[in-house]
Amino acid sequence: MIKLDPTRTYPHETESRTIVRFQDCDPLQHLNNAKYFDYYFNAREDQVATQYNFSPAQLFREYKTSWVVYQHQIAYVRPAMVNEWLRIVSRIIYVSDDTIVTEYYMTDDSGRQLKNVLWMTSKYVSVVTGRRIPHDPDVMAFLAAICVRDIDFHNLNFNDRIRQIKEELVQEKMEGESGGD
Fold first, then answer.
1. CA–CA gap between residue 17 and residue 107 (Å, rounded)
2. Sheet harboring 114-126: ordered strands across?
3. Alpha-carbon span 117 to 35, nearest angstrom
4. How far, in Å, are 75, 91, 170, 176 from residue 101 at the CA level?
């Protein structure tokens, strides 16, 4: 069962680094468009395991449930190049009784240049019936603990969100250069 530690504050955003592999690139040495999904999903799986001590396999085994992908929105902002180190950030930006939206974005290793943004909408389903069901109370408590709270998803346009992320990266860059004053 999913057990939240009441003495712990869970991060709302997870981040990891990876390198673009040659075999994942097109002839122009850009990360192949389809491979972004692999990079994101592998990063998220590792991130939730280390940051939250959670595995989607737990849902399958313990609750006989899973999330299935319902929809993607993706923007290829700048190419990720062969042998380039990247930062992958992921976070849950929306939760309802049977749905989550995970936001992913990728930057260069410095965290200053946005490469890609992905919104993935997933539905919670029973693996026995294959039908959508409400999140279990333990799962809902877990999602509430890790979901980003200050994003008004229903009033947010995907392209506007890309601009917001770019602005946040610029702001972080300026704060880093000024010493955080």
1. 10
2. 14-19, 85-95, 99-108, 114-126, 65-76
3. 13
4. 16, 9, 25, 30
For the chain, the structural domain boundaries read 13-175
Coil/strand/helix, residue 150? coil
Rounded to whole angstroms, how far apart are CA atoms 166 and 19? 21
Residue among 111, 83, 75 at smallest CA distance from 18:
83
pLDDT band of residue 48 (cuts 50, 70, 90) is very high
pLDDT in tens, 128-168: 999 999 999 999 999 999 999 999 999 999 999 999 999 99
Q: Reply yes or no on domain 13-175 having CATH 3.50.50.60.
A: no
Cite the DSSP H helix spans in the chain: 35-52, 56-58, 137-146, 158-177
Distance CA(86)–CA(115), nearest Å, equals 9
List the Cα angle 133/9/144 in 5-degree steps.
Answer: 20
Question: 3-state class of 99 per DSSP?
Answer: strand
* Amino acid sitting at position 23: Q
Please state the pTM of the whole predicted model.
Answer: 0.92
